[in-house]
Design brief:
Blueprint: E1 6-11, H1 23-40, H2 45-52, H3 56-63, H4 71-80, H5 86-89, H6 91-102, H7 110-117, E2 121-126, H8 137-145, H9 153-166, E3 177-183, H10 184-188, H11 194-207, E4 213-218, E5 232-236, E6 243-248, E7 251-255, H12 258-274, H13 278-290
Parallel strand pairs: 2-3, 3-4
Antiparallel strand pairs: 1-7, 2-5, 5-6, 6-7
Helix pairs in contact: 1-6, 2-3, 8-9, 11-13
């Protein structure tokens, strides 16, 4: 029941974790198949990455069953690896499993990921974390590994896979209108160690190259910051009013009250005006990379 504009609040605890119904095991099997054909063809992960247009990290993630293989990849890889149609044959099943995985996010943010997946616009202000759509696999894994109480390895792997699946929204066409305002402290917090953090900062620079995406940084020394009340995300779906999403201490809410959302949207506009512009923001990220 909605109360004061809050559509739902779901607490994050062990009981909210949903079973993946064998999806993770299926992806693991497909990954082993890809690895088998790659090694049989005498190619390294780096070589296959170069031939398919993927990164070496993405190839490794698919072979470990963490990242969802795209249909296009399976089709191209089938020819490159002389798989004889084996990889093409599992493409339909991969798509079906992907749909099942999309509905198996942790229950505490399932409502949000559903809204995000269909959004025409996504705008996010982040104060503590790299936004989920921008996270590398290693960064996401580090975040889940440091959570207390401890999560199981299986649970971590499933949640990382779900987060990486969300990022396919960055490859769609037409792509949603997306922007981020990220606090500078996020860029300076080396989650997972410096090497993991370096990869994360480089990933953000790479994403910023995608036409139509806007990434801005709120500098620590900014004299004014309209977002001191905390992080939030604004989502707009086709034919629906804009909604907002809040998350703190794993307590999550979708805000639907029009007046509440209007105020948050106005606040986000102010934040963009107070933050560094995109050119200045990317220069700051590069400067932080150069400091080590």
């Amino acid at each position: 029941m909605a109360v004061s504009g809050v559509e739902r609040t779901v607490f994050d605890d062990d009981e909210t974790v949903e079973n993946f119904d064998g999806v993770a095991e299926f992806y693991s099997a497909v990954g082993k198949l890809i690895k088998l054909f790659r090694e049989r063809a005498g190619l390294t992960q780096k070589e296959l990455a170069r031939l398919t247009g993927y990164s070496e990290n993405q190839i490794g993630s698919m072979e470990r069953g963490i990242r969802t293989p795209r249909i296009e990849f399976l089709t191209v890889a089938d020819d490159l690896l002389n798989a004889g149609g084996a990889l093409r044959a599992v493409a339909d099943d991969v798509m079906k499993a992907k749909v099942r995985l999309a509905t198996r996010h942790p229950a505490f943010n399932k409502a949000f990921t559903s809204e995000e997946n269909h959004a025409l616009e996504i705008h996010e202000y982040s104060t503590l974390l790299v936004p989920g759509l921008l996270q590398t696999e290693a960064h996401a894994k580090a975040l889940y590994e440091m959570r207390r109480p401890w999560l199981s390895v299986e649970q971590i792997n499933k949640w990382v896979a779900a987060r990486l699946t969300r990022q396919e929204i960055l490859t769609r066409w037409p792509m949603p209108t997306m922007s981020w305002v990220i606090d500078e402290s996020v860029l300076r917090r080396p989650i997972g160690g410096w090497e993991v953090h370096r990869e994360q900062l480089e990933r953000m620079l790479k994403v910023a190259e995608i036409r139509g995406l806007e990434l801005q940084v709120m500098p620590i020394d900014a004299p004014e910051n309209a977002g001191m009340g905390g992080a939030f995300t604004l989502l707009t779906r086709p034919g629906r009013d804009q909604i907002a999403y809040l998350e703190a201490q794993h307590v999550n809410r979708l805000i639907t009250d029009p007046e509440d959302v209007r105020r948050m949207a106005a606040r986000y506009g102010t934040l963009r005006g107070q933050a560094l512009n995109m050119r200045e923001s990317l220069a700051l990220i590069k400067m932080i990379l150069g400091e080590r």
